[in-house]
Write a structure and sequence with these properties.
about 170 residues; Aminopeptidase; 5 helices; 7-stranded mixed sheet; about 35% strand; alpha+beta; single chain
Length: about 170
């Protein structure tokens, strides 16, 4: 596969592309996300537009504008938590893995967020068995500060999650 030609903000008007990519992500990597395929299928395109308006999502696009990866920054609503941002929804389509797309998404996200005066750090959660993701996050300076046992339960199986933190 050819590498994406660029990383840019996913616009709310691209909610349908984002929805299709999320459906793919929840099919190929269901235990990497809190949401289930069934839950997200019930959401409307308006819901996804709202999500893309409220949050800052970066996408990896091919030369023909196919969305093949994403990473989302969510600001917390509560005033006392605004100094800690949340990263989530990291995904790279299986056909495009191994090309450095996740690394590029994370690098560009950190660069954009570095300029936010109120932001002290970022948190994320990752299933403990997702070694490639954990290695990627650690290579950028994220560290595990807790492990939550049985954090997710899906189709009769429990999954532990690492809580990871990055400080600017």
């Amino acid at each position: 596969m050819t590498a994406p030609y660029g990383i840019r903000k996913i616009r709310p008007s691209e909610a349908e592309k984002f929805f299709e990519m999320r459906m793919q992500a929840l099919k190929t990597d269901p235990n990497s996300f809190v949401a289930t395929l069934e839950e997200e299928k019930r959401m409307s395109l308006k819901d996804f537009e709202h999500y893309l308006t409220k949050n800052f999502a970066l996408g990896a696009y091919t030369a023909n504008q196919e969305l093949v990866g994403a990473l989302v920054y969510m600001e917390q609503d509560r005033q006392k938590f605004k100094h800690i941002g949340i990263l989530g929804g990291m995904y790279v389509h299986p056909s495009f893995r191994g090309l450095g797309i996740g690394k590029k998404l994370l690098s560009e996200m950190l660069e954009k967020l570095r300029n936010l005066d109120h932001l002290y750090g970022l948190q994320l959660k990752v299933v403990t068995g997702n070694t490639p993701a954990i290695s990627l996050y650690e290579s950028f300076g994220f560290s595990i500060w807790a492990t939550e046992k049985n954090a997710l339960f899906d189709r009769g199986t429990f999954f532990d999650q690492h809580h990871m933190m990055f400080q600017f």
